[in-house]
Amino acid sequence: MALIVQKYGGTSVGSVERIKAVAERVVNTARDGHSVVVVVSAMSGETDKLIALAGQIAARPAEREMDMLLSSGERVTSALTAMAVNALGQKAVSFTGRQAGIITDKVHTKARIEKINGDRITKALKDGYVVVIAGFQGVTEGATDVTTLGRGGSDLSAVAIAAAVKADLCEIYTDVDGVYTTDPNIVPQARKLAKISYEEMLELASLGAKVLQTRSVEFAMKYNVPVVVRSSFNNNSGTLVAEEDKDMENVVVSGIAYDKNQTKITVVDVPDKPGIAARLFNAIASANIVIDMIVQNISSDGKSADISFTVPRTDAKTAKEVAETVAGEMGAGRVDLRDDISKVSVVGVGMRTHSGVAARMFQALAEHNINIFMISTSEIKVSCIIDLKYTELSVRVLHDIFGLAQ
Ligand code: ADP
Ligand code: ASP
Ligand code: MG
Fold first, then answer.
1. CA dihedral in degrees (61, 65, 68, 74; nearest 10)?
2. What pLDDT is recorded for position 301?
3. CA of residue 158 to ligand 3 center, whole Å
4. What is the structure's pLDDT at 53?
5. What's the half-sphere exposure (Cβ side, CA atoms, 13 Å) at 373?
6. Ligand 1 neighbourhood includes 13 CB (under 6 angstroms)
7. What is the pLDDT of residue 251?
8. How much is the pTM?
9. 14 lines ligand 2 (CB under 6 A)
10. Per-residue pLDDT tens digits for 284-330
11. Is the pLDDT of residue 63 over 70?
12. Among all ligands shown, which has an atom nearest to the Cα of 314?
């Protein structure tokens, strides 16, 4: 008798047939004697469709209204899933984020969960219901406004709910069998990992491996929620995301990630004096934009610098506007924006104790004539910004040279 949270992503609830298949798995789990909380995403493609619709109405729609709009996708699937479970003779009830007690801050379209009042969930479970919760959404304190948690945010809903109701396990059902050494849709030879540490998963996710949303991994790590990633299309065992094992350090590189959602912004001819970078990046932070890489090149006469940084593509327009304002105020030159870039990264906790990973990575890219625009490293990863059109090629090359294939 366990308490299990099962999250089903967009493709897993992408059609009536898929929703019925999900309901069967849920009912089987309940009939095995477990209490089940289900978290669902919108049907695949639905969130993108809603974003495109908004784009046809307004160039810059109000973010509050975006949240009203986008939260509707998950609401649809939660009700349909509850109906499908009911139809199989198992009591089920659907909840919106608000009804599930998910309280967030007020940052629309990328809100953070502040607390979860799980009483209503717990009561419904006690009354014998399967509880189906609309993922990706919450509500501000006092139930004033609906918020969403950022793209891929249903993963976070599931992990946060699992922590709040003290679930024994959080299962993330998706369209691949688990976490692989790299995206199996790009490299068919990618190997499924039986287990991965929270830390490595966090790096992979934040570097673009969208199989788990970054903040969901942060949350799982913080609250020690055991997460299993598996497929809703079969019964194969998945990947356990948990605390690091002793033997994990023996593997130098455990995965390759890529991120095509980055934009590079360059502020040209920035005066070289103290406080300039602080001013620029304070302004960007105030717009709630997360900066990833930063590179500064001082000109040969030492009087000015070019500052380049990367931001998520969805924030690029705003970041450029903010940078232009600050550049104007401090007497810098123009602001350039480059969209046709991507980031490829190699990740592994073993890098802490093994050297030469960066050199091998640069060498492999050079041998394929792939130019590197920016580099960043941490204890357990090396990332390069490259030309977008070489993304798949570099992922394959790196997967190969680090010997990750099956
Ligand atoms: P869902 O809609 O179920 O949330 P996502 O599309 O968000 O699913 O995430 C699953 C996808 O993540 C896979 O189809 C795969 O293309 C991609 N992916 C990227 N990197 C990896 C990886 N290392 N292992 C597994 N899947 C990965
Ligand atoms: N439907 C949302 C999205 O597409 C949330 C999710 O799928 O996790 O980003
Ligand atoms: Mg996802």
1. 10
2. 78
3. 11
4. 98
5. 23
6. no
7. 75
8. 0.92
9. no
10. 999 999 999 999 988 777 888 999 999 999 899 999 999 999 999 99
11. yes
12. 2
Rounded distance between C-alpha atoms, residue 114 and residue 104, angstroms:
5
Mutate to test the pocket of ligand 2, among 7, 40, 44, 47 (most ligand atoms within 8 A of CB): 47
Determine if ligand 1 sits within 6 Å of the CB of residue 174: yes
As a whole number, mean pLDDT of residues 155-160 equals 98
Domains of the chain, each with CATH number or no CATH: 3-175 (3.40.1160.10), 257-401 (3.30.2130.10)
Q: Mutate which of 151, 210, 212, 232 to test ligand 2's pocket (most atoms within 8 Å of Cβ)? A: 151
Q: Check if 97 has its Cβ closer than 6 Å to any atom of ligand 1.
A: no
The percentage of the chain sitting over the pLDDT mark of 90, rounded to a whole number, equals 88
Q: How far is the CA of 382 from the centre of ligand 1 (A)?
A: 21
Ligand 1: residue of 43, 74, 187, 211 to mutate (most ligand atoms within 8 A of CB) is 211
Q: What's the CA-to-centroid distance between 208 and ligand 1, angstroms?
A: 10
Give me the pLDDT at residue 352, please: 86
Q: How confident is the model at residue 248 (pLDDT cuts 50, 70, 90)?
A: low
Q: Which residue has the tokens 């590197």?
A: 372
